[in-house]
TrEMBL record:
Pfam family, one: Esterase
MF-aspect GO terms: kinase activity
Matches recorded under InterPro entries: AB_hydrolase_fold (IPR029058), Esterase-like (IPR000801), Mycobacterial_A85_antigen (IPR050583), TPR-like_helical_dom_sf (IPR011990), TPR_rpt (IPR019734)
Organism, scientific name: Flavobacterium crassostreae
Protein name: Histidine kinase
Positions of TPR repeats: 327-360
TM regions (residue ranges): none
Record keywords, A-Z: Kinase, TPR repeat, Transferase
Length: 386
């Protein structure tokens, strides 16, 4: 129920309006309707690249995915994402787009044309026209969810993440998928969802595939199956938040639980933890994300609690790399010298910080006040000695 409420929170003002285009496909020999939605800051943040989400069944999967991503990006739990939805029309059109040979489970000639439309026409078009990061997600429901596995069959999987909602798996899909996923050379996310209301012809193959995938011992595979008490169509609303948070789990900022259970309990290496966290985001998701200010403050708090003041120097270097025009780096050095009792050096760093841009809760007035407080404290200590 919690996830249903989340999806009802559609922050329509967060994302720009979607643009609908008529895409003339040579592979399909027809024009297909697609919609493209860009993040709200796309036009102003001209250097940023965004992950790409391709939706099959774009008519009805767009809104729930759009809502979940809008909500997640509001809290910075999910990255802003370019959404491309493919309209597939009625059930006959879906069956033609995603048909398979009943003997070997491979796409039919028509489905191969649909595959080529996405792989050789749509994706290059989107990559050329928009600033896409090297991280692609594809999602589908029942018929289209089974079809998206075809994008795994290439030597290098075309997508980095697969969201299959109550997938109708073609014959031999279990074997094809397992063979590909046990020999991965790069991180890949594979998510499946089932509903209690799904018929057995959907459930049974997915359960068999699940049993095989759980036996794969590969650090590159990030796999999850969720089963919900829901109808075949309601499973979409339950599963989408789980799927997105499964894929982007490493993207999330440091939480209070992460801080108390994983960071503050360390004996040392607090700044190393921060560096590793953001390296994982880059390596797994292909996203270059500046270290969040709140994450700096979390690491700073752990350092202060454990009196590992020397690590503030390294934290300052990370701050300078991420926010060279802001006062954060000088502030961290000032804090280090202050805690070590070197008040003159600390005062100079705070004074220097006051000349730079404010960031987070750090302000010019705060730096000036800290400067004078330390100067007065130093003078008072000098008088006491006399």
């Amino acid at each position: 129920m919690k996830h249903l409420l989340v999806l009802l929170f559609f922050s329509l003002s967060v994302y720009s309006q979607k643009n609908t285009e008529a895409f003339a496909s040579t592979s399909l020999n027809e024009t297909r309707e697609i919609s493209i939605t860009l993040p709200p800051n796309y036009q102003t943040n001209t250097s940023k690249e965004y992950p790409l989400l391709v939706l099959l069944d774009g008519e009805y999967l767009y809104d729930p995915f759009y809502g979940a991503i809008s909500y997640g990006t509001y809290w910075d739990d999910l990255p802003e994402t370019i959404i491309v939805a493919i309209k597939q029309g009625n059930s006959d059109q879906r069956e033609k787009d995603c048909g398979f040979n009943p003997m070997d489970g491979l796409p039919t000639a028509r489905a191969t044309a649909f595959f080529n439309f996405i792989n050789y026409e749509l994706l290059p078009y989107i990559d050329k026209k928009y600033r896409t990061a090297p991280f692609r997600i594809i999602a589908g429901h029942d018929t289209t969810a089974g079809f998206l596995n075809a994008f795994l069959y290439k030597e290098s999987p075309i997508f980095n993440a697969y969201i299959a909602l109550s997938p109708e798996l073609a014959p031999e899909t279990e074997n094809y998928v397992v063979d590909k996923l046990k020999n991965l050379k790069q991180p890949l996310f594979y998510y499946q969802a089932l509903a209690s209301g799904d018929v057995n012809r959907i459930k049974d193959p997915v359960i068999r595939l699940d049993e095989k995938l759980k036996k794969i011992d590969s650090p590159q595979l990030n796999y999850k199956l969720d089963q919900f008490t829901a109808s075949h169509y309601a499973v979409v609303l339950y599963a989408i938040p789980n799927a997105l948070y499964h894929i982007f789990d490493v993207y999330k900022p440091i939480s209070s639980v992460e801080f108390s259970e994983k960071i503050v309990t360390l004996e040392q290496g607090y700044t190393d933890y921060l560096v590793t966290k953001y390296d994982v985001i880059t390596n797994k998701l292909g996203l270059k994300v500046p270290v969040r200010v709140n994450d700096f403050k979390a690491i700073e708090a752990a350092i202060l609690k454990n009196k590992a003041y020397g690590e503030l120097d390294q934290l300052s270097q990370i701050a300078d790399k991420n926010y060279p025009k802001a006062m954060l780096a000088r502030y961290e050095l000032g804090l280090m010298y202050e805690k070590m009792g070197e008040l003159k050096k600390a005062a100079k760093k705070y004074q220097s910080a006051s000349q730079l841009d404010p960031i987070g809760g750090l302000t010019k007035d705060m730096m000036i006040n800290k400067y004078y407080d330390l100067i007065n404290q130093k003078e008072s200590n000098g008088k006491d000695k006399n």
